UniProtKB/TrEMBL annotation:
SUPFAM superfamilies: PHM/PNGase F. Residues 207-388 form the Peptide-N-glycosidase F N-terminal domain. This is GLPGLI family protein. It comes from the Bacteria. It comes from Dysgonomonas alginatilytica. The keyword Disulfide bond applies.
Length: 558
């Protein structure tokens, strides 16, 4: 009898607690803390409020660079509608709505956990190949989740772990007696959900427009006379475009990328291209050659007596700092009328590469250039952006541009580097102002000579020596060129079933970026040093010649 009475009293107490809980509050407010690999993120929190079957989710951050957009998400569990509203930096407001489907693939698990004072059960789910572990409580008698597809009927989600790494966990639950109006106020532009999400994501990005649909060609045009112009300047008969741009003054908290889109305006061939900046902090610069001719540049003389203009560092000169080497495809867009079965040609090629290691050279006023080697009156069209993506703050690395044998002024008579390596080596003498730690050379190497015996199609060993010690020996070679066939409408098709764009090449393929190799040095003392690069360049055949476009900069921590 006593046992039965005790059970009745316990059930009565539970009923009273649940009844009291349901009567005493109209709104639930939950604060969540985010952790990654068990390390809490103290800079941001998520707050979810639930009232009258609507949940509002807002985000708070102390990181200034992430405050570009103020965003709220509303989940209406009566009609399963998600609404997102945002105010962007600058005052623009946008919103989007969509219907969401509750996840019916929840698998109950035996584990339980007490979170923020409430008993929670566990379920698991998989969304877009991500494994979710979800803890929820039914003790509050209402429904709500930080994600639309992970809601539990009559339950509030208090913790979600994604792929065992990222965790959002309730650290505070408030029960408020008043009803909070959570109906979204819709103002500004209505966007599709994908467009909205993309705009929110990109609102954190600083994008500097350098060139906008600029033509690069070979024509008899006058040379610019005024470097103070704010317009795009074209040199070397239109094959070089150059512009002084203002980049963010403080880029220490960003990852930096160059992004160039290109299409053909009449040139059907794969061409060498380069995105570079012109250092101007020494007595001479590459600008002198552009304005006055190649003769105004310091010359490197090989053992045969041949001279090469503006390609190596001197005490008074820094060569162009190559940000990205790219190779145009065979005629994308300009020759999309060529039909090949099973291929749909895109309208352009987009080349994108990270250049964060060059952050120190990518701030303030900077001369930025692009070049495509071609002799076509209607050549190519490019657009270039330099993009800064918020990331952890890092100390900028020291940069010493050392050499660029890419003959950017080819169409103004700058020499091909064909004899520079033949039975010889490129020798570069340079000085560092300070000791460097964790130093390396960012090295790009591509071979050229477009016939069977040319170095474009023949692997060649690259050896680099620093102060007479060999620090690397490797062969630049790409065997994946066939992966980019769809970018090359004008590529010739051979009787053996291959296309010319499929062929393996010395460090490049038509329609891609040539990736840099990071040649580890370690610590290097301040003072004078010597670098040598040896490549066994092939002999010429008639009017055909082999040569190597290489560029390198010393990078390290101060």
């Amino acid at each position: 009898m006593k046992k039965s009475l005790a059970i009745l009293l316990l059930l009565s107490l539970v009923f009273q607690i649940e009844a009291k809980g349901k009567k005493d509050f109209k709104t639930v407010r939950i604060t969540y803390q985010t952790s990654f690999n068990n390390k809490p993120d103290s800079t941001s929190t998520t707050v979810m409020e639930i009232s009258e079957n609507i949940a509002r989710i807002s985000y708070n951050s102390t990181r200034k660079e992430q405050d570009d957009a103020v965003q709220n998400i509303y989940l209406n569990y009566t009609n399963n509608q998600e609404t997102k509203v945002a105010k962007l930096n600058g005052g623009e407001t946008i919103y989007t709505t969509r219907t969401f489907v509750l996840n019916d693939g929840l698998t109950p698990q035996p584990e339980t956990e007490k979170i923020a004072g409430y008993n929670c059960k566990k379920v698991t789910a998989s969304i877009n190949s991500n494994r979710l572990e979800i803890w929820y409580t039914t003790e509050l008698g209402v429904m709500g989740s930080m994600q639309p597809g992970t809601a539990i009927p009559e339950g509030i989600v208090l913790k979600i772990v994604r792929n065992g790494q990222r965790e959002e966990k309730a650290v505070k639950v408030e029960l408020l007696k008043e009803v909070t109006s959570l109906q979204p106020v819709l103002t500004g532009s209505q966007l599709s959900t994908p467009a909205y999400n993309y705009k929110i994501q990109q609102s954190k990005v600083i994008a500097v427009d350098v060139f906008d649909r600029q033509s690069i060609y070979f024509r008899n045009i006058p040379k610019p006379t005024d470097l103070n112009s704010t317009e795009v300047l074209q040199f070397a008969n239109g094959s070089i475009i150059l512009k002084k741009v203002t980049l963010p003054a403080d880029n220490s908290g960003y990852s930096i990328f160059t992004e160039l889109s290109q299409h053909s305006e009449g040139d059907a061939y794969d061409r060498t291209g380069s995105v570079f900046i012109v250092p101007t902090d020494r007595k001479q610069s590459f600008l002198d050659g552009l304005m006055q001719g190649k003769e105004a540049l310091p010359q490197y003389t090989d053992k045969h007596g041949d001279k090469y203009e503006g390609m190596t560092v001197t005490n008074d000169y820094l060569p162009p700092l190559e940000l990205m080497r790219f190779y145009t495809s065979f005629g994308v867009k300009g020759f999309n009328h060529i039909q090949v079965a099973n291929y749909n040609w895109p309208d352009s090629v987009v080349f994108k590469q990270e250049v964060t290691d060059y952050a120190k050279a990518l701030k303030g006023e900077v001369w930025v250039g692009a070049w495509i080697g071609n002799y076509a009156e209607n050549g190519h069209n490019v657009s270039l952006k330099i993009k800064y993506y918020p990331n952890e703050k890092k100390e900028a690395k020291e940069i010493y541009p050392l050499f660029t044998t890419v003959n950017i002024m080819e169409m103004a008579g700058q020499a091909y580097p064909e004899g520079m390596f033949r039975n010889d080596s490129l020798t570069v003498n340079f000085k560092t102002d300070t000791d460097l730690k964790n130093a390396y050379i960012r090295y790009i190497s591509t071979g050229h000579g477009g016939w069977g015996g040319g170095d474009e199609f023949n692997p060649k060993l690259n050896e680099i020596f620093l102060d007479n010690n060999r620090i690397i020996a490797y062969t630049p070679w790409r065997e994946d060129c066939g992966s980019y066939r769809e970018l090359n409408p004008a590529s010739g098709n051979f009787s053996n079933g291959l296309s010319s764009s499929d062929l393996s090449r010395s460090g490049w393929c038509p329609g891609i970026v040539s990736y840099p190799v990071f040649v580890h040095i370690g610590d290097i003392k301040a003072g004078s040093h010597q670098l040598k690069i040896a490549i066994p360049v092939g002999d010429p055949e008639g009017s055909s010649r082999s040569y190597w476009c290489i560029s390198g900069a010393l990078v390290g921590d101060k």
